[in-house]
Protein 1
Amino acid sequence: MLSLSSSSLLRPSLHCRASSSDRSLGRKLFCCSMAPATKFHNLSKLEHDSDVLIECRDVYKSFGDKHILKGVSFKIRHGEAVGVIGPSGTGKSTILKIMAGLLAPDKGEVYIRGKKRAGLISDEEISGLRIGLVFQSAALFDSLTVRENVGFLLYESSKMSENQISELVTQTLAAVGLKGVENRLPSELSGGMKKRVALARSLIFDTTKEVIEPEVLLYDEPTAGLDPIASTVVEDLIRSVHMTGEEDALGKPGKIASYLVVTHQHSTIQRAVDRLLFLYEGKIVWQGMTHEFTTSANPIVQQFATGSLDGPIRY
């Protein structure tokens, strides 16, 4: 998981555990999951698009001679729960990193609340939207405790006291169903617990700010490597932190404005998202509501939904 915006050194209380490489990596990674900090150009909004939080327009991306994205366009609106599906290697994780500001498109444009992003994330704070990226591997720092991992960005860049941050970390962990784990190291956690710690890290924010921007969470294979029961727990947590979903583990409504999930798992498709985008060979070849997925007449979607070896998708 990631977060957006950071600059100062870690507080002294973290120096005993965080190596210089940890701190350097932390400043790069965490600038994608909590407070957005990118350069934008002003763009007037159309009234009917006033609820669009993130838009990709004709996005292309290549790595060397390998063309990953070939003109991807879509919008994420306020309140949406969107899934991105498709075969492996079709650019699903790449489009997440472009939306989060970790990669720049070779061609095409990304708009955040109607403002065109120019370049990658930076340390220049702007208002409008917080973007969180939850990595497939959880991306926790092995040398930091759970408390230090979840509160990393606040320790580094906020004006909150250590006691305030510690209390907020405890509350956020409880909201994802974890209690009494603040002093554990990642090596002492199960796979499912690591996923929940990563989710908590993407949810926490500076509560002392006068204005709290809406947040969009981007999940990269959040249930990968988990057993069916642990997957169900994570899928339900994704729903619970959504402001239009169920209550979280503390019985409070969710605070996430919208989210996008990259997944291969049918259970995640059915339980965690409402609308689907099918990415194949670098393009969106189908989109529709979740209940339309298994009844689509598109042969690519049919093959993916049934797992058949016969069809246009070849390995």
Note: The chain is about 30% helix and 25% strand.
Protein 2
Amino acid sequence: MSAPSVAHEEAVGRPVTRKELPPDVQARIEKNRLAALERRAIYEKRIASDRAIARALGEDTGGSATEGGSGEQPAPKDFFEENAKAIHKAIAEVEPLPKNGWTKFYDYDLSKMKDTRAGFIQELDEKDAVGAGDDEEGSRKRKWQPTVAQQDPSIFLGADDNYECQDCTSVDVDFQILRHFHVPVCIGCRDSQPEKYSLLTKTECRMDYLLTDPELRDTELFPFWERPNPKKATWNNMMLYLRCQVEDFAFKKWGGPDGLDQEFERRERDKAARKEIKFKKQLRDLRNKTRTSVWQDKKMQQRAKVHKHEFGTALVDPESGASVQTCIECGIQVECEEFF
């Protein structure tokens, strides 16, 4: 963190003394100085407490070197290893240092934040792309992977070194349109002329301007901007086109706006005619099915009834002596046997 006087020196353009600083800057400097002195006093107090604890432990474990008569003092490492528990207990009883103002943190790291330009179609960095993480959800393969964001060109002081709007010669150019469609237009003209600089989807180009899919995919005719599908990320990418480029190509293809309208009306008439033909065909098939069922019913009604013989009383034939029965309607005779 820079000193409070740095900003004032940058504004003035030369080194300044403390007396030349504004009152608020001097107050900040004095506040920081007092805080540093307070932290230093606490640190020195802590060091003195540790030394007192070490001396006390040294006297309890056998006194000084001169009293022991050995003439040699114990090494610090051996001393702390032998009395580790006692040292930790003594340190725990000492009041810890208060949390200073330099340990504060924020939920948002301002140094890593980037300007999104308030746009919902802003390109992301490679590390922010979908599937960049190692987790299961982030590693899922998707059809769209965001490309690395490109930095916009800088605006120079010289007028000849900057891009200018083709309508108003402004240098506030929309670099998204310039990068993808190679059309220098400022943000003001883009917003004030949506009939010229708005973006169209591939479906709108096919329906409104009667363009084919091979023509829309040909980058030599006009460029397009490929973006993720807003309805679902796993669907095919959305292709955006600049309206003025699409209109110019469509008018050349169909002979102007009148030719485009005539072609649109012709296709609508053909569409209505095909729909009428399909309806008549379905109606004819329905009539044929209905006619067949009616014909079958009439045929069954007109079919002759099956004759069933109704025989009368059996009579004995005098010549042969056999019993014979005769049908009342057709007169057919059959021999029968009678059991008494």
Note: The CA atoms of residues 129 and 146 lie 5 Å apart.
